[in-house]
Write a structure and sequence with these properties.
Strand order of the largest sheet: 1-4
Strand content: 5-15%
GO molecular function: DNA binding; DNA-binding transcription factor activity
Number of domains: 1
Keywords: DNA-binding, Transcription, Transcription regulation
Number of helices: 6
CATH topology: Arc Repressor Mutant, subunit A
Radius of gyration: 16 Å
CATH architecture: Orthogonal Bundle
Pfam families: GntR
Number of strands: 4
Shape: globular
Protein name: GntR family transcriptional regulator
Distance between the termini: 7 Å
CATH superfamily: Winged helix-like DNA-binding domain superfamily/Winged helix DNA-binding domain
Length: 160
């Protein structure tokens, strides 16, 4: 199960942060079809945000075809976004983590690394990513995207 982390200083709406964290977990293979998302009550208890904010994020994910609400049961993952090589335990991630450690050791800070990663992504993939199913906030930036994995944590499977 995923535990959400809300960065109140990011300038990104909390419902967008939740939706992005679910999408990130789907891409990394941390959530798979059939997995249940935390209930709105559980998210509110962990993050101190309004339950309507959680429900809005889940509705956006539902509209995107990623999850489905089952009345009386909860919200469940409908489909995965995981691709070979993108899993949380992939060799590519390990290489990237090693690179990030070398960048830190070389004296680069998070913003420096974010700028480097963004420039390489732009070169390799042709510019900024499309907006996707979630609205972006005007103050959103690449740094938040780079930090998203810091906000995804697994809870014990039995706590759902």
């Amino acid at each position: 199960m995923v535990e959400f982390r809300i960065d109140r200083r990011s300038g990104v709406a909390p419902y967008v942060q939740i939706a992005r964290q679910v999408e990130q977990a789907l891409r990394l293979g941390l959530l798979m079809p059939g997995d249940q998302l935390p209930t709105a009550r559980e998210v509110v208890a962990a993050t101190a945000i309004n339950p309507n904010t959680v429900l809005k994020a889940y509705r956006e994910l539902d509209r995107a075809g990623l999850v489905e609400a089952r009345p009386g049961l909860g919200t469940f993952v409908r489909r995965s976004l995981a691709r070979p090589g993108a899993a949380a335990d992939s060799p590519l991630r390990a290489e990237l983590a090693g690179w990030a450690e070398r960048a830190r050791a070389a004296g680069l800070d998070r913003d420096d690394v974010s700028a480097l990663v963004t420039s390489v992504l732009d070169e390799c993939f042709g510019g900024a990513p499309p907006g996707g199913p979630y609205a972006t906030h005007p103050t959103d930036n690449a740094t938040h995207h780079a930090n998203t994995t810091d906000h995804i944590h697994h809870a014990d499977e039995g706590t759902g």
